[in-house]
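Key result, reporting period 2: structure in, sequence out.
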């Protein structure tokens, strides 16, 4: 699986899963635009991973990516946050902020990228869903709603994009050992009234087959397959990467 000069825009790529995907894409020959709300971190990640001939860091801006590299072939809509509360205590402002980052962000970047993909009659839209695109967990009403929404957006784009040879798929990780997940451990321990060890063993990994976290490198490999796949044979799909937590 090689990308050979393809241009990939990856949101939330200054760290975590997005950073791992950027690294893997560069290894496969892509040119990468690292988009992040922290432009300094995005620029730093780009310098460390490749240098300006192959990678740039931006706060956001599909047009800037195209101005630098000429087009965009792959969108990885990865940026996300997590906020946990029981619904009766969930601040509406936090609900709106989470949905804006996950769903509005996916919608806006898709809208901006497909105008270039449609012109060249090719492209790959890759959305970062979650096992929570299929399952629900207590305290995560906003996150579960957002991840279910991303699945619907991707399936719609698979149908709209087909005539332009643009594929759309969702990666659905289980708990990946990132700063976002590490932050949840004490938060859930407090909300649930249990120890952090129990949060990890029972809440996060209790339904896996081997009690192991998914790693960022696992997700990056799946993202490479979806980006490099040649035909519409694989579109509108959700690929679950969860150590068996959820099985279709």
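The corresponding designed sequence is given below.
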């Amino acid at each position: 699986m090689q990308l050979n000069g393809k241009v990939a825009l990856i949101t939330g790529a200054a760290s975590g899963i997005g950073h791992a995907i950027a690294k893997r894409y560069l290894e496969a020959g892509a040119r990468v635009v690292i988009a992040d709300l922290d432009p300094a971190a995005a620029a730093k990640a780009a310098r460390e991973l490749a240098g300006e001939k192959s990678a740039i860091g931006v706060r956001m801006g599909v047009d800037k990516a195209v101005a630098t590299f000429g087009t965009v072939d792959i969108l990885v809509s990865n940026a996300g946050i997590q906020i946990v509360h029981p619904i009766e205590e969930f601040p509406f402002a936090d609900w709106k902020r989470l949905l804006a980052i996950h769903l509005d962000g996916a919608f806006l970047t898709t809208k901006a990228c497909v105008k270039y993909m449609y012109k060249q009659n090719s492209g790959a839209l890759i959305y970062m869903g979650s096992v929570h695109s299929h399952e629900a967990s207590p305290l995560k009403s906003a996150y579960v709603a957002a991840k279910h929404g991303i699945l619907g957006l991707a399936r719609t784009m698979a149908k709209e994009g087909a005539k332009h040879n643009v594929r759309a798929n969702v990666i659905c990780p289980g708990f990946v050992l990132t700063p976002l997940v590490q932050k949840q451990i004490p938060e859930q321990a407090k909300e649930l009234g249990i120890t952090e060890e129990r949060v990890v063993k029972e809440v996060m990994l209790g339904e896996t087959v081997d009690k192991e976290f998914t790693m960022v490198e696992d997700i990056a490999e799946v993202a490479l397959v979806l980006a490099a796949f040649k035909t519409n044979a694989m579109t509108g799909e959700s690929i679950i990467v969860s150590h068996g937590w959820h099985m279709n």
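The beta strands are 7-11, 31-35, 55-58, 74-77, 123-128, 166-173, 238-241. The chain is about 45% helix and 15% strand. This case is discussed further under Risks and Mitigation.
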